[in-house]
Amino acid sequence: MAFFAHQIRRGFSSSAVRNVVIKQVTIIGGGQMGAGIAQVAASTGHSVTLVDTSDDILKKSIKTIEGSLKRVVKKKFADKPEAGEEFIQKVLKNVSTSTDAGSAVKSSDLVLEAIVENLKIKQDLFSRLDKLAPAHTIFASNTSSLPISDISSTTNRLDRFGGLHFFNPVPMMKLVEVIGTSSTSQETFDSLLNFSKVLGKTPVSCKDTPGFIVNRLFVPYLYEAVRLYERGHGSKEDIDIAMKLGVGYPMGPFELSDYIGLDTIKFIMDGWREMDPDNTLFAPSELMDKLVAEGKLGKKTGEGFYKYK
Ligand SMILES: C[C@H](O)CC(=O)SCCNC(=O)CCNC(=O)[C@H](O)C(C)(C)COP(=O)(O)OP(=O)(O)OC[C@H]1O[C@@H](n2cnc3c(N)ncnc32)[C@H](O)[C@@H]1OP(=O)(O)O
Ligand SMILES: NC(=O)c1ccc[n+]([C@@H]2O[C@H](COP(=O)([O-])OP(=O)(O)OC[C@H]3O[C@@H](n4cnc5c(N)ncnc54)[C@H](O)[C@@H]3O)[C@@H](O)[C@H]2O)c1
């Protein structure tokens, strides 16, 4: 009876009664997050195909992975540089690239999407891949803020669909939020939890609620820092110093917003405000709107709250 109730809660489906051991991974989107996830998956022995829209972007993704691996081995193989170089080559061998997502998913146990934060584009991608991936393949999204149940709604594998939310920079941040919708099967959820552990991360279980755990607490904090600055209650520099030295955060809110990307943070907040316009935690910021409109998105464009050129 308990088993049955449990299956109903997670959405039982006969096609999902076993745990999938994830070996072959397709990651769609080779940007900040996709490249980082590919690196960590390849470093832990998975066979990874990284997919993006052009070979030029993918070349950049591999360069990013290489650069990050060099930082990792500098520590891990401090006394054995040759073993470090060997490790890098071994990891890079585990990563192949493709601009053809349809072919890449055909031999995948997991398809993890880290493309642009846009519901329609994510839905279209998964709807197309749903028809091409094997039945056992689990689909997951790395979305920061969109409901997983909205992204999965265009597929016929609701029981094999969940969220895997990584943190930036992926090689350094230990947390993964594993998100189950009301339709995600227990087997899929367990496979995603287990995959996160095999990557060397610590997973936490989340409901499919706005911002899951971290972003629901964290994004209003980033916005309040900007509003505090707009009210003239402190300089950007002092607010950053205060949060680093006062509560031990590794980066202040302005440094971190620039690091994540102001477009990403604004997109998250705009979406929540649309859902709940009277919630003062979701109030807009004129400065944030202005910077994003000017294309000053943070580190990735050379300027955000601070200049990086
Ligand atoms: C919005 C989304 O949905 C959710 C999110 O992702 S929210 C964002 C979450 N991320 C954070 O909060 C990041 C907060 N910042 C930090 O933890 C740290 O500042 C940081 C790890 C990014 C960098 O650390 P910091 O001490 O400031 O700088 P730095 O000295 O360059 O790096 C520290 C170590 O990390 C390593 N490192 C940093 N980035 C790395 C990367 N991308 N790859 C590999 N190694 C990296 C460095 O090599 C260095 O190693 P060392 O200690 O052996 O020298
Ligand atoms: N930046 C962060 O700190 C962070 C943290 C956690 C989660 N996320 C989420 O991860 C996702 C990716 O964010 P990012 O910061 O890596 O973005 P990014 O802009 O760095 O990378 C996105 C990549 O996806 C590619 N892409 C776009 N549409 C595609 C398609 N249809 N097929 C294949 N590739 C496509 C782009 O060319 C680009 O290389 C977003 O959903 C974001 O909300 C971001």
TrEMBL record:
Chain sites annotated for binding CoA: S68, K75, S144
SUPFAM superfamilies annotated for this entry? 6-phosphogluconate dehydrogenase C-terminal domain-like, NAD(P)-binding Rossmann-fold domains
Supply one GO BP term: spermatogenesis
Q: Tell me, what's a Pfam family for it?
A: 3HCDH_N
Q: Where is this site: Important for catalytic activity?
A: H165
Tell me where it resides. Answer: Mitochondrion matrix
Does the keyword Signal feature in the UniProt annotation? no
Domain spans labelled 3-hydroxyacyl-CoA dehydrogenase C-terminal: 211-308
Under catalytic activity, the entry for this protein gives: (3S)-3-hydroxybutanoyl-CoA + NAD(+) = acetoacetyl-CoA + NADH + H(+); a (3S)-3-hydroxyacyl-CoA + NAD(+) = a 3-oxoacyl-CoA + NADH + H(+); (3S)-hydroxydecanoyl-CoA + NAD(+) = 3-oxodecanoyl-CoA + NADH + H(+); (3S)-hydroxyhexadecanoyl-CoA + NAD(+) = 3-oxohexadecanoyl-CoA + NADH + H(+)
The EC number(s) given in the record are 1.1.1.35
Keyword Oxidoreductase assigned: yes
Cellular component terms per the entry's GO annotation: mitochondrial matrix
Task: Give the pathway.
Answer: Lipid metabolism; fatty acid beta-oxidation
What keywords are annotated for this sequence in UniProt? Acetylation, Differentiation, Fatty acid metabolism, Hydroxylation, Lipid metabolism, Mitochondrion, NAD, Oxidoreductase, Spermatogenesis, Transit peptide
Residue numbers binding NAD(+)? G29, G30, G31, Q32, M33, G34, D52, E117, K122, S144, N168, K300
Which of the seven top EC classes does this enzyme belong to? oxidoreductase
Note the subunit structure: Homodimer. Interacts with GLUD1; this interaction inhibits the activation of glutamate dehydrogenase 1 (GLUD1).
Q: Which family does it belong to?
A: Belongs to the 3-hydroxyacyl-CoA dehydrogenase family.
Known role: Mitochondrial fatty acid beta-oxidation enzyme that catalyzes the third step of the beta-oxidation cycle for medium and short-chain 3-hydroxy fatty acyl-CoAs (C4 to C10). Plays a role in the control of insulin secretion by inhibiting the activation of glutamate dehydrogenase 1 (GLUD1), an enzyme that has an important role in regulating amino acid-induced insulin secretion. Plays a role in the maintenance of normal spermatogenesis through the reduction of fatty acid accumulation in the testes.
Mind telling me what this protein is named?
Hydroxyacyl-coenzyme A dehydrogenase, mitochondrial
The organism named in the record is Acanthochromis polyacanthus (spiny chromis)
Q: Upper taxonomic classification of the species?
A: Eukaryota, Metazoa, Chordata, Craniata, Vertebrata
